[in-house]
Amino acid sequence: MEVGENETDINNWTEVIEGRDDVMLEDLKVFSVFFVVTERKNGLSKFRIFNTSLVSDYFLDFEEDDYYVTSSANPDFSSQKFRYNYTSLKTPRTVYDYDMIDREQKMLKRQEVVGGYNPDDYITERKYAVARDGVKYPFR
Asked: CA–CA separation, 31 vs 75, rounded Å?
């Protein structure tokens, strides 16, 4: 919800992120012009980036179907870069800076894997099992 600093009565609230039964809001990083919400749906986290000056939002896309992401320390309120951590069953732990204006990411660091590891030799898929009640559950 959004509300003016001096108009905090519930009648002045404006919905910014609608509630959804199938989505859990996990984290929030606030910048001067942006804020980033970590949303979890079907067991998978995604970053939703809001541009407050353009009143728009979008999801940060990842190439793999199954992965694990977390936001990192982002102490500079005026920054246009969002730092996050990414890993998957085929991609070693990696730290990225994502430019929220240019929509480009830069890899800062990747954990080394010894022994001739080549991620192109592997694939990652996201599968679901259906329970007796018809609910789909993701598994790796």
From this structure: 9
